[in-house]
Amino acid sequence: MTEAERQQVIVLGRLLAAERRDGCADRVTTDGLVAYLNQWSAAAGSAVRLPAVQRALGCLIGYDGMTLVERDQALAEAIEVLRSLFRTAPTTPVETTVPPSPAVNPAPNAGHVPVTKRNTSARQSRKRAANVDQRPLAELNLDAPLEQIAGIDRRLVGGFRRLGVRTIRDLLYHFPRRYDDVRNRRSISELQVGAEETVIGEVTDVRTIGAGPKLRVRVEVSDETGSIEAIFFNQRWIAQQIRVGQTIALSGKVTTFGGKRQFSSPRWERYTPDPEALLHTGRLVPIHPLTQGLHENQVRRFIKQVVDTMAPQVEDHLPPVRLQHARLLPLGEALAQIHFPTDHTSLAAARRRLGFDEFLFIQIGVLQRKRLWQQEISYAFTIDMQVHAELQRLLPFQLTAAQQRAIEEIFSDLRRPSPMARLLQGDVGSGKTVVAAAALLQAVANGFQGALMAPTEILAEQHAKNLKQLLSRVRVPRKTTSATASSAYQQADWRSLLDPEEAAQLAEIVSILGMSPEEDMGGHGVRVALLTGSLGTRERRRVLEGIARGEIDLVAGTHALITETVQFAQLGLVVVDEQHRFGVEQRLRLKNKGYNPHMLVMTATPIPRTLTMTIYGDLDVSVLNERPPGRQEIRTKRVGRAERAKVYRHIRKQVAGGRQVYVICPLVEESEKLDLPSAEEMYERLQHEVFPDLRVALLHGKLSAREKDDVMRAFRDHQYDILVATAVIEVGIDVPNATTIVIEGAERFGLAQLHQFRGRVGRGHHQSYCILISDSDNQQSKERLAALEQTTDGFKLAEVDLQLRGPGEFFGTRQSGTPDLKMAQQGDTRLLAEARALADAILADDPELKRPEHDLLRRKVNDFWAAATQSG
Ligand code: ADP
Ligand code: MG
């Protein structure tokens, strides 16, 4: 590199770096980066012919049409390429060697040569991963890390690592996110205007026309039937890459200009006669997920080589008979086809096979867990129907048929000596708490303790209060179990054991919970305590001791319940509320607080059946599909933003009538220039402009858990009329006096979440309203909001949402501890059922997958679950 070239490269590099720092907004030059590159190319003299410069410019083709992420990637790549010029002595002869052009195809059967053809100069070997014993691909096994592939580019390794792809196996499972179908290959005379087509021909002319922003490169391609022009706008460097005499493939849309057909900025690559070798054109072109440092064509070329060499070596964990029976592609074939499909039929077959595997691994995992669980010994309770009847007498309402059915199912589990593992699924307001209370009461009647874990302090408090109200009046014959710490403790006057200050404090807790100490300790009513992270040290110790000594029968709490210091005297039943907030791991930790206690998991998230089977396949399911009678239907209405004044009049009326109102705002990132108010802005507006005379509170995600709870508590106690909140409000909080919920930017929430929000109102006797504010024209958003207006049935909504948006969107966030489905479609009930059937069949023969022929399958299942719980 000459000094003049050096200077030119520095100028270019600085400009690209500046553009990147500016957020890739394409505004650091007046006419845009593309125009600048053309000017630079014209002025840069011989620098423009440096191979590295050409590669850098190649990265930036079509810059103005890229997304911000793509621009950032392209810039990073280009800058990195330019930098490489400076990492070596300026005049090494190697510099003049032309590196592989992005358009060169790998030689067919290239499996044994290094993946990226490179010379072996000192500079090049430094670019490779250091200190790794490298081998040709064909000599490596599937678990080899990518850096062991001989000749692999270090940047490629780094880029893939950012995507979580470390080994060859990971790469085989790094599936394309979509495919571009450009298989229509024509002779030039047959080309149809308006169609996406591919031609192959010889380059007969290359010409650069015009200058500045109007510059274009005109390439003429001919075959035996005629010729056609391809025009590349603002891409001066194309003239260096495409040369007369080459045979190239062009893919893209055919247009007309001045009566002549032409391709406008098509995809192209140099052509070799082997049709299978076409990678970027003329086929179903796979589009793989990329990240900074990974370039589309380079990745596709690399993956092709790995797939060609390695996919045939992949061992199938299913024997051929099973494959035949289930009409599945062999695994290696499926992996090859998923990356480079021959046609849509084989792509579908590949998807089916890989999706089947995911369902199969999940089903085997959950069935094994269930089996293990059921083999354990738990306490067989004797259901005390008298106590249960007393509970029902004390309830201010009749249990619904659904509640009775769920309680029956739970009781029959509790009677068995194996631990219950049951999911209680019930829409918001369906009355799950009383079902849990009935079960907890039986634990106490059998001389055991019960624990109820909730995701927030205020919910835990609410549960403690409800349990207390309901159960402290139920007379329970005290059974003493061997493990109950000391009956002496139970009989002794507990106050004599405490110093006066502690006694006073305990009395305070007890009175917060609304119990009277006498009644509480008299051996009649159920003794309920609350354990949360915000108890003072003394109080906390009291409760912990009470739990350890068996003086507390039931404890409601938060995560605090699963910390190490909590020791139960005799934990017999664990209830986990709002399960989707807890991971499998946390469930297990609570369970491990006892010796295989029974477990009931409650969720208000309506989950379609197919999903239940994958997520909670290890649990038995009870469903509360009936609302308690006398409930007001919540009136739901979608309005435009222009109608806010009307909405505010409605709010005023509600507050004047003594009611309370929620206003929910979507999380708005500062960078978003949308016309959506953040919760903070909305709060300012409502408190200072719209309702200066009303009491408005603000709840947002940046508050600590403690502060959030304080705000919620104050709202519950009616110290505020209006609560402005972000999505943090979602969980099952009960403020019966709140009758209206207004949701701003409603289209930005998932249906399940909107339904949860709506469940915040309609919890008392008053007519309640849900107002969805949205101006969205998006068809899917409109359908979702319309579904919400039409039904209050959470299960129906869940099905609608699953169909409209898929499971990830449905939950909003990923379920923790739930395996990720890359390939299987959650809605694909039939495939799931087939996988379940095979899982059943395999496990019926070999429950622990101990047979040699199940060796690989067992490892696959374990790996799959290990990955799932790790990332959860
Ligand atoms: P969720 O299932 O959302 O947890 P809750 O258990 O909080 O619902 O119950 C919601 C409300 O419905 C509570 O106020 C509860 O007292 C009341 N409730 C529960 N069961 C019945 C019933 N069978 N009849 C009337 N009201 C009921
Ligand atoms: Mg609840």
Observed structural traits:
21 strands; binds adenosine-5'-diphosphate; binds magnesium ion; about 850 residues; seven-stranded parallel β-sheet
Describe the overall structure.
The chain has 872 residues and is α/β, with parallel strands linked by helices. The strands form 4 sheets. It has a 7-stranded parallel β-sheet, sandwiched between helices. Strands 16-21-20-17-19-18 form a 6-stranded parallel β-sheet, with helices on both faces. A hairpin with a 2-residue loop joins strand 5 and strand 6. The radius of gyration is 34 Å and the shape is globular. Mean pLDDT is 81; it is low at 89-129, 480-500, 506-523 and 807-817. Bound molecules: adenosine-5'-diphosphate (ADP) and magnesium ion. Magnesium ion binds at residues 432-433, 577, 732.
Summarize the structure.
With 872 residues, this protein is of the alpha/beta class. 41% of the residues lie in helices and 14% in strands. The chain is globular.
Low-confidence stretches: 89-129, 480-500, 506-523, 807-817
Bound molecules: adenosine-5'-diphosphate, magnesium ion
Rounded average pLDDT: 81
Overall SS class? alpha/beta
Instruction: Kindly state the percentage of residues in helix.
Output: 40-55%
